[in-house]
Design a protein that fits this description.
The complex is a heterodimer. By secondary structure, chain A is mainly α. Chain A has helices at residues 13-23, 28-44, 49-65, 75-94, 105-111, 116-127, 133-152, 159-178, 184-198, 204-212, 236-252, 256-268, 300-320, 330-339, 343-355, 357-380, 391-416, 422-430, 478-485; strands spanning 6-7, 435-437. Chain A folds into 3 domains: 13-155, no CATH class; 159-380, no CATH class; 398-456, no CATH class. Chain A has 19 helices and 2 strands. In chain A, helix 2 (28-44) runs antiparallel to helix 3 (49-65) and helix 4 (75-94) packs parallel to helix 7 (133-152). Chain A is flat, with a radius of gyration of 29 Å. Chain B folds into 4 domains: 4-114, no CATH class; 117-308, no CATH class; 323-514, Rossmann fold (3-Layer(aba) Sandwich), CATH 3.40.50; 566-706, no CATH class. Chain B is globular and about 85 Å long. Classes of the chains: A mainly alpha, B alpha+beta. Chain A: One of its GO terms (biological process) is maturation of LSU-rRNA. Chain A: InterPro entries: Las1. Chain A: One of its GO terms (molecular function) is endonuclease activity.
Chain lengths: 487, 743
């Protein structure tokens, strides 16, 4: 792990995007929901200030908009609300940009491209006559726009434009390395330098790897150039073209191979979700050259080629052990394959066990298990279907085995002495207590905030619980409910 | 090095000459004060680092202009606000900066060399005897010799007296009986654990002359809890002792047995937050010039985790007790003798002056005179016996030989304030404090709890109250209120002749009329290493608490005291059914979270578990939960919810905090919280409500320090892990709030 992540209050980038959409929605209900969620985020601790400022403006403007609703609010109250939101907003943006020597607020504002009348408003609100409601309303609107430009939309700046740029650079690279006449080294090196200047380590996964895994790069378009079930080696041509580039990337970013392999592994099991069907006939040319989202069904030759690449990396990594220029997180690959057994991950497991005697011994029972289910499934269906085992299947099996084991173990224990300690105590007290230990057999370690299945459940309670909304005369209609649950 | 002249102690070639001597030390201090302070430069540095680090907490109410020059660096005591004065929360720095270069540079500039840390003891074959097969040594020391060390070790007195952090460790053998007639067979040999990490000033073990005064009789029969040695260990020690006795020419004043304690799992502190806490117990060796000689000296002990200091080592200082502190303590003890009622001592002063250090020193002194001592921690940003955010009353019967995080305990009574400062709800803070003082008077000082009906002086339980160092603005107001509530017999007030801005204003007349006021010299804060911030100390205390193997029991020999080998995220959590278990619902102390969003605030956060004071674990309330008709068509049943200040927080006279917990995940369908806590099931069954304050869970509690996490945690890729992000975040106002202070 190269660095320590930072703490953020949202559960996922998706939740973050939702809140952005809500705060800037046309629907007051959604805006109110956005404000509410930001309050929950604030309660967690660290939260980017611009989010808080946005929510403050939205909350103030909601008050204003529905000032003549159920609860009357005076103009003066509104002016106080808006003014404070403004003062905190301007100060909050300016302050972090103060250097060692005090500079005027106006000069910093100018540098940050903030309209100077924002600064005036702040000044008036603090030291002079409270600004008028008309001016404050206008200011609120513009401040929200400003925050959207400078903060919210700045969050996803690169993906679409840069990914195109990277793709065209990689195409250049491919061209140069195929061309026997050109001065290969210099031109390819130039291209690679451009790519590494374009992105930093944290964007490998989002920008670089997706392009590499599109059809026509690491995985050739033509089916003949790909690997197959019977031949899981890479063609020499493929290695000649791409390997120098991968080496360069690996040298540039230490986590590159890990991230590449991780994405490859995820692809290997991506067919498993939803309809479990692997298209052996390979008649669909599924990958378009555009970056549009990839269809679920990925052709098997594509996947076999991925397996071949991973095996290739593993081979190099095994061959030179610690000195290898490819340093892979083997444990992670192993864990991933064991957690997601299918035809492809099994091939990788086999490859790993062929290179690692100890490992072979250690995971032999799993391999047998995977084989067994493989066979039994195949017998059941004559289709050329690859059986897929979900975590649940595996766990069920493990659980059954463990249950049997516990039974025999208990029998043994009981024969020894009948008064065993804590376990029995715990079980007794568990029956009616509000407190129970999570069933150790079912518990799986998982990140903080996730359930043992690695997912975060929906954490919403009904909005009705918050009492009548401050501004809405009639109850929430169904449309809104649907939008909310669609999160 | 351009900054060389800024070092206070420059390594010289003759460390022996500098070796401690009161006069010389004073001289050095004088020199120090005339040197230009290096602080502005470090301030600048911090600001740079801060470009990423923000914290809502950093809104500091105190507006003392000088404060911006205080680098918050207290080794042992400070106040939450203060840590933000310069503002670099090291935690955050690590989290937010991808390269650690800035930090490294900062570290180099602040290297602190303190020659006083060198031990006045030369180990040799004739004064250190170790057993080959186990980590046990016996050491013969002459009077005034000291062994200063970094790390952790168990110490038992065999002969003579030793001073450790103000505690006089005495062998039960009479002095007259001489060395050769030592009889260990029939006596208990009690080991005391001593912790000396470099997050704080290092501990010194000093051989001292036995005091033949009246206290001694009491010492004889006051057996402070510690770790009793097993017959096997005693046998090893007796054998070692024979070797020592065979050496005739040495005249030892003190003989100690030392024993390793790696089995306690304490080393785990270092592995958890690699950047911050690595090496707090172990000495960095590579820079040492005299590698050979040094290793020889250490090898004589060969105890894991016990690193005696024999040469100037960067970034460590010594727990050095000035003479003025000693005289303050003896004056206090004299005062105490005259009181009819149990004495109440309040320790007060600005932050970073040594309040906590002195409290510990005082406690270790008094514990030899009083069998039990009560201690109220009102500095909720950095508590002595609990993680931050709690206010507690503790009853102590043994010395505290280490910094707070090494002796996190279950207090006699605890209240959850959910914040590092009383700033946001001073009234609740004072209510809780008042209740603790009432409890002290009712249960402890003169109550039945400890059999103290008698007026016998011996059975008094004195009370020590440590206060927060926030003594400007509202903080000073709160402080005066504490004085009013506590009605102390003695006030220990820190003062500094050089850093005048750190002195408290003259206390109002209505306060100073009754108690004795004793002034005491402040620790020179410029001497303190700036490497560890108060947020680091908070993290350590919380780590110590949440990873504690058994928070309730006294610490046992050869068992794990901390279970750092299993990361929290691997641990099997408790499931709390909030319909069945939380009869009094959920309180939110600060903020404005609507019920519909409550779980978003609670998931993965640190909370207090609250129970009733008249606690009979009951299940009766379950049926009383108001069931609204509405809930029938709601899929998920919400808990009762009481956001403050619309509702008042749990009353300190009716409920108390049982402990802290992490809501590690939530299963709303089954109305279940998954909870991580070191408490036992019996304690958990008393829980009636959960309170969330402003305490944040540092990133270290969410990571897996035991396995390679290049791709993700527990098989979940980074992208899908909640509450953390590798993306730096961009755009204006991306940082969390911080406070700009005027220079």
């Amino acid at each position: 792990m190269a660095s320590i992540p930072r703490v953020v209050p949202w559960t996922s980038p998706q939740e973050y995007q939702n809140v952005y959409q809500w705060l800037y929605s046309d629907s007051p209900e959604l805006r109110e929901l956005g404000v509410k969620r930001v309050k929950a985020w604030s309660s967690r601790g660290k939260i980017p200030q611009s989010i808080v400022f946005t929510a403050a403006f939205v909350e103030a403007s909601l008050r204003d908009e529905f000032a003549f609703g159920k609860i009357k609010i005076s103009n003066y109250e509104l002016r106080l609300l808006y003014s404070m939101a403004f003062i905190r907003f301007v100060n909050g943006i300016i302050d972090p940009n103060q250097g060692k020597y005090a500079k005027s607020v106006a000069s910093i504002a100018h540098k940050l491209d903030m309209p100077s009348w924002f600064v005036d408003l702040r000044h008036a609100g603090t030291h002079e006559h409270l600004p008028s409601l008309q001016v404050l309303r206008k200011g609120c609107q513009q401040a929200l726009k400003w925050l959207e430009d400078k903060y919210w939309t700045a969050q996803k700046p690169i993906i679409s434009t840069q990914i195109d740029e990277i793709r065209s650079l990689i195409i250049d690279y491919k061209k140069y390395s195929k061309d026997p006449d050109s001065n290969k080294k210099i031109s390819t090196n130039n291209v690679l330098k451009k790519i590494s200047n374009l992105i930093t380590a944290e964007y490998i996964k989002d920008l670089l790897v997706p392009v590499l895994l599109e059809n026509g790069y690491l995985i050739p378009k033509g089916k003949k150039k790909r690997s197959s079930r019977s031949n899981t080696t890479l063609s020499m041509k493929l290695i000649e073209i791409w390997f120098p580039m991968l080496q360069k990337f690996g040298y540039e970013w230490p986590t590159f191979y890990d991230e590449l392999v991780q994405e490859m592994l995820e692809k290997l099991i991506s067919n498993d979700e939803g309809e479990i069907y692997i298209n052996f006939s390979d008649q669909l040319e599924i990958f378009q050259t555009s970056e549009s989202s990839q269809p679920k069904n990925i052709s098997s030759s594509y996947l076999f080629t991925l397996v071949a690449w991973i095996s290739h990396f593993l081979e190099i990594s095994y061959a030179k052990k610690n000195n290898s220029f490819i340093k892979l997180d083997l444990e992670n690959i192993l864990e991933f394959c064991l957690r997601n057994p299918n035809l492809y991950t099994k091939m990788i497991l086999e490859f790993m066990t062929n290179h690692d005697e100890d490992l072979r011994e250690n995971i032999a029972p799993f391999m047998i298990y995977i084989d067994k289910i493989d066979v039994s499934k195949n017998n059941q269906s004559n289709l050329k279907e690859i059986p897929i085992f979900t975590d649940e299947d595996m766990e069920k099996e493990v659980w059954n085995l463990r249950k049997e084991f516990n039974k025999t173990f208990d029998l043994k224990q009981n024969s020894k002495d009948s008064s065993t300690t804590e376990n029995s105590l715990n079980k007794d007290s568990n029956l009616d207590s509000a407190w129970k230990l999570y069933n150790p057999d079912e518990w799986k370690k998982c990140p903080m905030g996730c359930l043992p299945n690695g997912l975060i459940p929906c954490l919403d309670f009904s909005l009705d619980l918050d009492g009548p909304s401050i501004f809405i005369p009639e109850p929430l209609d169904d449309d809104v409910d649907m939008m909310l649950t669609g999160e | 090095m351009p900054n060389e002249n800024r070092e206070f102690f420059v390594y010289t070639d003759q460390p022996e000459k500098i070796v401690s001597n009161a006069n010389q030390r004073r001289q050095q201090q004088e020199i120090k004060t005339t040197l230009p302070l290096p602080l502005p430069s470090s301030k600048k540095k911090s600001e740079k680092i801060m470009s990423y680090t923000m914290n809502e907490e950093s809104m500091d109410l105190s507006n003392d202009p000088e404060e911006s020059f205080v680098v918050d660096s207290d080794v042992d005591d400070d106040d939450p606000e203060e840590s933000f004065v310069v503002g670099s929360d090291v935690d955050d720095v690590d989290m937010f900066t991808d390269n650690l270069d800035t930090k490294t540079i900062k570290k180099e500039k602040n290297i602190l060399l303190d020659p006083l840390t060198i031990s006045r003891f030369t180990p040799s074959m004739s004064n250190v005897f170790r057993s080959e097969e186990s980590e046990i040594c016996i050491v013969g020391m002459k009077w005034n010799e000291t062994i200063n060390f970094q790390g952790y070790v168990l110490v038992a007195p065999i002969y003579g007296d030793t001073m450790i952090m103000g505690y006089r460790l005495s062998a039960t053998n009479s002095l007259n009986s001489g060395l050769n007639s030592l009889d260990l067979e029939n006596k208990d040999l009690i080991f005391q654990p001593i912790f000396s990490p470099k997050t704080h000033a290092l501990v010194s073990i000093e051989s001292v002359e036995r005091r033949e005064d009246e206290e001694e009789k009491k010492e004889e029969n006051s057996h402070h809890s510690g770790i009793k040695s097993t017959p096997e260990i005693k046998k090893i020690i007796i054998n070692l002792l024979k070797k020592l006795q065979s050496i005739k020419e040495e005249k030892f004043g003190t003989i100690l047995a030392l024993r390793g304690m790696s089995w306690s799992g304490i080393k785990g502190f270092e592995s958890i937050a690699r950047f911050t806490f690595k090496g707090i117990f172990s000495v960095e060796r590579e820079k040492s010039r005299n590698i050979d000689s040094k290793n020889e000296k250490e090898d004589l002990f060969k105890i894991n985790g016990f690193n005696p200091i024999f040469e100037v080592t960067p970034d460590v200082t010594l727990f050095n007790i000035s003479d003025s502190w000693k005289s303050v303590v003896s004056q206090l003890v004299t005062n105490f003798r005259e009181y009819k009622l149990p004495p109440i001592t309040i320790i007060c002063g600005h932050r970073n002056v040594g309040k906590s250090t002195f409290s510990r020193y005082l406690l270790n002194n008094l514990i030899k005179i009083y069998p039990k001592i009560a201690y109220i921690e009102s500095d909720i940003g950095q508590s002595e016996f609990t993680p931050a955010g709690l206010m507690s009353l503790n009853i102590l019967d043994s010395p505290i030989l280490g910094p707070p995080f090494t002796h996190i305990k279950q207090p006699y009574r605890t209240y959850f304030l959910g914040h590092n400062t009383p700033r946001d709800d001073p009234d609740y803070y004072l209510d809780c404090l008042q209740e603790l003082i009432t409890i002290y008077h009712r249960d402890i000082a003169c109550g039945p709890e400890f059999g103290m009906y008698t007026s016998d002086e011996d059975l008094n339980v004195p009370l020590i109250i440590n206060t927060h160092g926030w003594v400007t603005g509202l903080g000073y107001d709160i402080f005066l209120n504490i004085l009013k509530l506590a009605k102390p017999t003695d006030i220990i007030q820190f003062y500094s002749p050089t850093q005048i801005y750190k002195n408290l204003p003259k206390l109002p007349d209505y306060i100073i009329s009754s108690p004795n006021i004793i002034f005491i010299e402040s620790i020179d804060s410029t001497k303190i290493s700036t490497k560890y911030q108060s947020s680091d100390h908070r993290t350590l205390s919380l780590l110590s608490y949440l990873y504690s193997n058994n928070i309730n029991n006294t610490k046992q020999d050869n068992t794990k005291w901390w279970k750092f080998d299993i990361p929290l995220i691997h641990q099997i959590p408790w499931c709390l059914d909030w319909i069945k278990g939380l009869s009094k619902g959920i309180f939110l102390l600060f903020g404005d979270v609507p019920l519909s969003q409550l779980l978003y605030a609670l998931n993965g956060s640190l909370v207090g578990l609250i129970g009733d004071i008249s606690d009979n674990p009951d299940i009766s309330n379950i049926s009383n939960i108001p069931q609204e008709k509405k809930q029938e068509h709601m899929r998920i049943k919400p808990p009762n919810y009481f956001p403050c200040p619309n509702f008042s927080p749990p009353s300190p006279s009716e409920s108390h905090c049982i402990g802290l917990a992490i809501i590690r995940s939530i299963d709303p369908i089954n109305h279940t919280f998954h909870i991580l806590t070191p408490l036992s099931l019996v304690q958990l069954q008393r829980v009636k409500s959960i309170v969330k304050g402003k305490l944040e869970l540092p990133i270290w509690f969410m990571l897996d320090h035991t396995s390679n996490t290049s791709i993700g945690i527990c098989g979940v890729p980074w992208k899908r892990i909640p509450y953390m992000s590798f993306e730096a975040g961009i755009g204006l106002g991306n940082e969390a709030q911080r406070v700009r202070r005027k220079g």
